[in-house]
Amino acid sequence: MTDHPSHPLDAADPLASYRDRFVGADSELVYLDGNSLGRPLQVTGERLRAFVDEEWGGRLIRGWDEGWFDLPVTLGDEIGRICLGAAAGQTFVGDSTTVLLYKAMRAAVALRPGRTEIVLDRDNFPTDRYVAEGIARECGLTLRWIDVDTAAGVTADQLAEAVGEQTALVVLSHVAYRSAWLADAPRLTEIAHDAGALVLWDLCHSAGSVPTSLDAWDVDLAVGCTYKYLNGGPGSPAFGYVARCLLEDAATPLTQPIQGWMGAADPFEMGPGYAPARGVRRMISGTPPVLGMLALQDMLALLDEAGLEAVREKSIGLTEHAIALADDLLPETTLASPRDPERRGGHVTLNHPRMREVTAELWRRDVLPDYRDPHGLRLGLSPLSTSYAEVERGLHTVRDVLDGLT
Ligand SMILES: Cc1ncc(COP(=O)(O)O)c(C=O)c1O
Fold this sequence. Notes:
- By secondary structure, this protein is of the alpha/beta class.
- Helix content is about 35%, strand content about 15%.
- The protein has a 7-stranded mixed sheet, sandwiched between helices. A 4-stranded antiparallel sheet has the order 9-10-13-12.
- Helix 3 runs parallel beside helix 9, helix 10 packs parallel to helix 12 and helix 11 crosses helix 12.
- The relative contact order is 0.17.
- The chain binds pyridoxal-5'-phosphate.
């Protein structure tokens, strides 16, 4: 058993017992980086062993017909249902986040011929900016940048000012990787649509922590990773979402740029030219990373059991607690995340000029947050595996480390 009953907030937490299902939760180590790499579930060890023995080792090549071939879309549907507010047939699991961002952005700008701009903010995650930069070069487009407060994120007014009749695509993060700013996705999507543009949401820091309603918000495209709050393990594949209307629009069907055999209408026809598969399967390029999708299935089952709304409630509880502790214990730090929980995702960033050194010392003491320039200590609080007691131990250790600085 873990330490959750010893803290009153853990004792009152209806989700506290889920922590026991994660590997290492019974140790003294403080893990505050679940928004970079989620802890593994114990059951995942068993699943991996059984997969090797029974499915891979026993079924061998027959495995493809018995489920692996469809896994990108069957698992995609589960992610859509449990985490995204997406009806079946629009979500898939594929390559890395970076590659899916490329495919999605490239597909989107091709749907807006004649429009010359991609709108994005200067504090979006580097890969989003770099991919957009490459696509702009490839397609002769211009990037229109929104300057944002790095302790917050893109507002409706800022986006309204940036978009116009030249905007092909708007690329935004739902939860900002640095500040945890939670964008008003339905409103920002509406603003982009009013300008005739498409929107691509990066859901890396929300999937499995902050619920979305992609269908209801009329989102066009989204991409997210599975190794953070979906606990898929290091390098597990990303998921993508394409709105049904874009997949079924016969006049301008969505096409993606990496035309591989697995996304073809009939992969085993092996014909002379490429014809895309119907539906979201056309977003797939090559052989799906089946091993990389195993752990993810365990976490999805857990999230389904706990309910994403309850997970979000705990996430807010954890971030509120971390901020209250920081206010109390660490007055020399500055909160670089929104104070309003409605505008904040699942992590909290605290700035201090010496946070780089502080983080290194915390790691030596088995307290694992992460560090982001210019001087932010990022506390990623994964709701089902993090206890309130753990947050408390972590922030008291930050106090000790700051006291020990010379
Ligand atoms: C917000 C965001 N977008 C994109 C990426 C890139 O993902 P990948 O390295 O899996 O391609 C990350 C990785 O941490 C991220 O946090």
